[in-house]
């Protein structure tokens, strides 16, 4: 009997351990990353390195190699931990402001904590040859545009670089607005530099601009009112401690080129500095069996495109040989100081319906390389796989079972009655353990599932972006341009639904749930997939259907007592 109670105690401990593992599965995930705010500097400038570690070790990073190439001007450490929905999350972050010791290509080394290793980073260091025209003043500003000519929907980086050698604070800054363009505010950067041997603090205010029509656009001149501390000589003469500086930025014209005629008709226009397509499988594709699913994941990553610009990677490719069951796509973007990077991930379960040799079709996405100014393709070639029949697999398993039984010697006796009792008892506990494990797992999944986002009114700046996107949508509809209309519909949807926006025309139709609008969206989809120009499409009909749906939504909100004004008044 004591043995029985020991068995119960051991099983209880196993249950407790299983519960602990399930409830803290995310606690032990760790990662080490390193990134800089600038990768092109001069010897008189500083840059900021941020090292972030998520994990359960209490270690510090070793920066001895870093000091070989950089002087550390300042550094600080930040720790943050929290429990959300029963999940422990947190990070430790080290920030270093540093100045390069020499010109050339320098390397920020990899850092290591436990088994986690960060990537090395290459930094280009130039001579400090450029001198702004306003050098010598306490406060001044530059306007920098990374290109004076760009394609429609290509990313343009606009920088406002503010230099100051005295204490300042901002009184008023005009909002940046550009007609026929979508604006995205990027991460700001701060560093130090020397001009004529005078030290300055520098703040760069960065924006990504995406022109939506060919022709020309203009980055307007803006007024910046800044309160600046007077120098010691000015203060000693009784002029007060502060003075108001009125700065004005430069106007910058930009020529916007249309989509090249050589770009494939019907394909989504993708002007980017980089576009890659990667593939992963949940299992080895050399061991596929008819009827058994396998998961394929495709990741489309870009530099210079918003997530809403990325197209659907795989169209409906079901066939008699292969059935595809796609999951909802996952998109994300990062708005760094150097521009926007984005990705779209599509996962799908593939079920092979027939045994024998089958072909998984190639995936080929055209894009325009803005650095080399030419057409390129991000692609995964077709794959030939051999599918085993389920009957052959079952026969192989039966043969293995028979062979293993034949290995038993004649001296092996049948289990005794007492052994059978313990065997039955062990089987009962095993079944109970499985049931309890499943219950704990379900409860844990429910506890850690994110709460549904509440519907809140859109912020004013989001309304402005939404109105800009809708204005461009009206323009493309009235021009009867199906391709640009499709892209602008997705961009507008991304502003209209901030939480989980539709990524395709089918998803947009399902979200609106309006028969008239659904019909027009399907018609647009059919025209785009004919792979040829179509002059018979009337975009005004689609625009009218969308306007009617928006009016019905506004009326519904008014009936519910929200009293909101129309999102996009005519």
Automatic annotation (TrEMBL):
<dbReference type="Pfam" id="PF25607">
    <property type="entry name" value="DUF7939"/>
</dbReference>
<keyword id="KW-0812">Transmembrane</keyword>
<feature type="transmembrane region" description="Helical">
    <location>
        <begin position="425"/>
        <end position="444"/>
    </location>
</feature>
<dbReference type="InterPro" id="IPR025738">
    <property type="entry name" value="BatD"/>
</dbReference>
<keyword id="KW-1133">Transmembrane helix</keyword>
<protein>
    <recommendedName>
        <fullName>DUF7939 domain-containing protein</fullName>
    </recommendedName>
</protein>
<feature type="domain" description="DUF7939">
    <location>
        <begin position="468"/>
        <end position="552"/>
    </location>
</feature>
<dbReference type="Pfam" id="PF13584">
    <property type="entry name" value="BatD"/>
</dbReference>
<feature type="signal peptide">
    <location>
        <begin position="1"/>
        <end position="29"/>
    </location>
</feature>
<dbReference type="InterPro" id="IPR057699">
    <property type="entry name" value="DUF7939"/>
</dbReference>
<keyword id="KW-0732">Signal</keyword>
<keyword id="KW-0472">Membrane</keyword>
